[in-house]
Design goal:
The protein is built from ten helices and ten strands. The chain is of the alpha/beta class.
Length: about 280
């Protein structure tokens, strides 16, 4: 069966019953970077492995590229090798932040590596529990596999391209942060408040319904088309604070059939690393 970008808890349980699916717990808390892993050990989807945003899905040694720079190819490959990934194996990622920290990030990195049979669990950990599905504790031990992947960084937007396209006007930059942070009214994480001039605000939380699942694809498509204002999805570049929750908006657009948008990986924390770059505040 084809794996969609979003998958429900019951569908995932059925795929697990049939086998050949790798489930990855990506729970993470920006304020307590060890919390997600502790909660994984306390209880997780059966047979799920764990990947850590800072260790496995980022390279914190890089400077000037934001708080969560892309991981080195070798580090990402080794992380997938530890959890037993192999070519052809479906991957389903989940977290407890409706995909924003950091299931959508893993989904996006897999796409950069050419792996399209990956999905995010719609509603995440809460949806799995609400469905009454089994839970197990402790670390899952999986047989390691040889993995050597390369992230296609040409699919990522970097500073030079963003500045060139901003100057020519052929880009729609969409910021996934909450509106108060976008407007510069509060900034709990980064040293400078505000947003990139001319960026539009589409908080990732707007992709979700009251249950914490993604809105129906038709509704998402209608909402994003209003944001696009007639632009093609390929003109869209997503950003956020550090290139993590931006992946949630990319996932929502792909789910809605608006394909081809990309992510400005350094995002706001990378933008303000150079004090000469302009900063805007307000709506």
């Amino acid at each position: 069966m084809t794996l969609p970008n979003l998958i429900g808890a019951n569908d995932l349980a059925e795929r697990q019953r049939r086998g050949d699916v790798l489930v990855v717990d990506c729970r993470f808390d920006l304020a307590d970077t060890g919390k997600g892993e502790r909660e994984y050990l306390a209880g997780h989807i059966p047979s799920a492995a764990y990947m850590h945003l800072d260790r496995d899905l980022s390279d914190l040694s890089k400077r000037g590229l934001g708080r969560h720079p892309l991981p080195h190819d070798l580090v990402f490959s080794e992380a997938l090798a530890r959890i037993g990934w192999r070519a052809g194996l479906d991957v389903v990622a989940y977290d407890d932040a409706q995909g924003a920290l950091a299931a959508a990030r893993l989904w996006w990195l897999l796409r950069l590596a050419g792996i399209r049979n990956a999905a995010v669990l719609d509603g995440g950990w809460a949806a799995w529990r609400a469905a009454g599905r089994k839970v197990e504790s402790g670390a899952t031990t999986l047989a390691q596999t040889p993995v050597q992947l390369t992230l296609d960084r040409a699919q990522v937007v970097w500073f030079d391209e963003l500045e060139r396209r901003r100057a020519s006007g052929d880009v729609l930059l969409i910021d996934a942060r909450g509106a108060p942070r976008y407007r510069g009214e509060v900034e709990p994480i980064d040293p400078v408040a505000g947003h990139v001039p001319n960026a539009r605000n589409r908080p990732f939380a707007d992709n979700l319904d009251a249950s914490g699942c993604f809105k129906p694809r038709e509704e998402l498509r209608s909402e994003f088309e209003r944001v696009l204002g007639g632009r093609h999805p390929r003109e869209v570049v997503h950003m956020c604070g550090s290139g993590v929750t931006a992946c949630h908006n990319l996932l929502a657009m792909e789910h809605a059939g608006l394909t081809g948008s990309r992510v400005f990986a350094p995002s706001w924390s990378g933008w303000i690393a150079d004090p000469s770059r302009s900063v805007a505040t307000g709506p």
